[in-house]
Design a protein that fits this description.
The chain has 19 helices and 17 strands. By secondary structure, it is of the alpha/beta class. The N and C termini lie far apart (about 95 Å).
Length: about 575
Amino acid sequence: MANTIDRTHDNALQPDGRAQGCSEHSSHSERDIEQAHFKAIVDSSDDAIISKTLHGIIRSWNLAAETMFGYTAGEMIGCNIDVLIPQDRLAEEQDILARLARGEQVAHLETVRRHKDGCLVQVSASMSPIRDQHGRVIGISKIARDITARKLAESALASAEAELRESQKMEALGTLAGGIAHDFNNMISIILGNAELALQDARIDPAGVLESVGQINKAALRARSLVQQILAFSRRQGTTQKPVVLDALITESVQLLRVALPLRLEIAIHRNTDLPPVLADAHQMQQIITNLVTNAAHAMRARSGRIVIRSGTAVLDAALVAQRPELKNMQARHPGPAVWLSVSDNGCGMDAATRAKIFQPFFTTKPVGEGTGLGLSVVHGIVQLHEGAITIDSTPGAGSTFTLYLPLAPEAALVAAREAAAALTPMTAPVEVGQQHILYLDDDGDLAFLVGRMLARGGFRVSIFHRCEEALAALRAAPASFDLVVTDYNMPGMMGPEVVRAVRRTRADLPVAVASGYVSDEVRADCTAAGAHEVLQKVLAVDDWCAVIARLAKPVVKAGAAR
């Protein structure tokens, strides 16, 4: 209608008073008006609207593009779009141009471009091919939206959620501390008592010595297992999702929980060893189990009760979603088979109002000072991170059941896990250990004495040092006389990775192993980057230590030895 009014107005303004009769002039006028309208729409857009050739040469550049990237239309028209593209994104742009030249569209691509001032701009871009009257692709139109603020907000939210999970993890560990300390004290009492008995029996009752040493070994193994579970649970780390079998995690988690919960509470596991793997972060799954079991324990108040953990598989189909609407979003993303894990208690239960708020941060039904209300909120956050779902069945006075659903691990992840496991499988060909010379460096004299005896009984010649300077001086004096260097990670004056680099400067081909009481991902990464051949856990059994060291020290196979 606007175009008609404009054309009528133009006709009324003819100098000779006659109406415009030239259809060509009318057509030009109409096109001019349409182009003016189109330009007004483009320039009023908050999104950058750009057109370019198939080679990336910019043909048009609206006002929002000037604001977003800092360049005026005069500066950009005729230039290549590469001006905006960071070096590490050039291959991405070439791929986009090739796809558009084939007639494809690219929708909502989230990427990074560079502002005139050098700052990076996070953008969401959609691109379409421009065709001529014959349908041939002759150019590209692009609409880009600045999503930098959104990305910063998402990053801040993710950071806050991670901090929340870590904070709650420490709270949970504090809850477990009393039971852990009790169990540790029992183990220490067993070790010290049996050591005293062994000393008393050393001359008068050899059989008693063996019995006491066996009890010491048993208690020490329990302590080692408990330490590893605590460290694995408390470790601060990013999310690493790998194929995981929940049944094994349930067993490990409950071993830690049994020593922490009151004896009046019974924990029963209905094991399911046929569960398919899920793609999950193992430590976060343990945190879910710990939080749900701890929550169930609190629901018992001060009375005795029973907590039951079950697991199984389900098919996320329309019938199940009709029964469980909470699974609708998960079913849309991951229809088909899923793994579930449930934690049930016979505690106080919840009414509908409590169930509606149970996953809110800081909401708690416990008295002031007995909890922060973060446990179930963290569970809910981890479940969402894994694209799963969680349901609640609860009745006041009759207990509650929390059921976690997780999608199965995709086949590609399973293949990658199998390949990684195969690559880490040690060589098992039997070898006969010769007199390999080991340089062992540790500032703990008692531990160094133990390791020295241990390796000597394994058939090695061992030189023990307690100071880095002395060990490195001995190596420089006779670099060819050693077959392996084993160093503690935490040495005075020089950390393990520094020792590794010093050894490699003296003799680059000499194998070096780093030993630590706690091998975290960071420790392993630092040592590997320095050139360490192996990172050893100090609590490995004697046979395991000797097997690893024999492999690293390139043991000699004697002529005629059985293979």
